[in-house]
Amino acid sequence: MSEFTHLNEQGEAHMVDVGDKDITERSARATAIVKMQPTTLKMILDGSHKKGDVLATCRIAGIMAAKKCPDLIPLCHTLLLTSVKVELHPEPDNSGIRITSFCKLSGKTGVEMEALTAVSVAALTLYDMCKAVDKGMVISDVKLVEKSGGRSGHWQAEG
Fold first, then answer.
1. Which one of the listed residues 93, 128, 134, 141 is annotated catalytic?
2. Which parts of the chain are beta strand (E)?
3. Where is the active site (predicted)?
């Protein structure tokens, strides 16, 4: 079994060959946080934003991004995702929105990059839709929080 690396024998970047790997059920969950002014959060939640339903637009953007991951991340495999969920949870006490994505498939490689791409693009979409009223928004804590399947099995972030 060869070592998984994005470098070939000549030290050049290449796509990892996953041909010898077993097909297993694989999933990944990622999160991100977007902090904003309380007035911006209120505008999003009460539906008074002039651009429409911010949360619905961000949800769709995240789903679309997960499906386009190989077009965005070099050397990412094209995957047949069986499920992509993006949820946006307002956190009024922290004046922010927590974004969570969940991706799954039955395949030879994991979906961590798809989950991370989904929350990243959803967060960027939120910023884009609200930047006219709050340029100081902060996107943070983009991270993988759980993955399952494949040779390494289940992993969950601490905390």
1. 128
2. 24-35, 83-91, 96-107, 138-148, 155-156
3. 128
**CATH code at position 74:** 3.30.70.640
Residue 16 in domain: no
Helical H segments across 16-159, by residue range: 38-46, 54-67, 69-72, 112-130
* 38-46 and 112-130 helices, crossing angle to 10°: 100
Structure tokens at 7: 């470098």
Total domains present in the chain = 1
Q: Please give the order of strands across the beta sheet that includes 24-35.
A: 83-91, 96-107, 24-35, 138-148, 155-156
Per-residue pLDDT tens over the stretch 64-82:
999 999 999 888 888 899 9
Residue 141 falls in the annotated catalytic set: no
Domain that holds residue 106: 30-154
Task: List the one residue out of 58, 54, 32 whose CA is nearest residue 41.
Answer: 54
Binding-site annotation: residue ranges: 75-77, 113-114
CA-CA distance, 26 to 105, in Å (whole number)? 5
pLDDT for 5-40, tens place per residue?
565 677 676 666 666 677 789 999 999 999 999 999
